[in-house]
Specification:
Structural class: mainly alpha
Largest sheet: none
Helix content: 55-70%
Shape: globular
Strand content: under 5%
Number of helices: 8
Number of strands: 0
Distance between the termini: 38 Å
Radius of gyration: 16 Å
Order of helices and strands: HHHHHHHH
Amino acid sequence: MADDPIRPLRQKSFDDYFRVQRDRVFQAIALTIGDRDLAAEATDEAMVRTYERWRRVRTYDNPPGWTYRVALNFARSRMRRRKYQSPAAVPEQSHHDAESLDPALTLALARLPMEYRSVIVLRYFLDWSQDEIAAALEIPVGTVKSRTTRGLDRLRTGRGVQ
């Protein structure tokens, strides 16, 4: 894979990695969870954890995949905690998380269940392969394929919400 954008990361310093990947991971997390503030917090936390483990993480096949998964797990944990707090403590989610995307597409993505949304965002927003997505989300490649197919079908038919 001579044109693989992830492979050169192995030789980069964390500073280089941060400059290239921080905004990409943030945008992917914001699209996946639909909450810019939580996405920023989760991305920052994931970047700190990546920095702390950089000697090991930079040797992974897909360092951004590891960072994305850490950010997603952090965000999910926060979302679960919010769910058990009073409803007034849960902030309104923003659906304008990617200024460069069509607001209708952003809204359609927000209506998908998170398991479909995450594979769609990683595949079409970050242009990751099915293998990279499977590794990042720690799911089988077959699950990536089926979630992609089902998610795209829901987007086409307007059946976003479960």
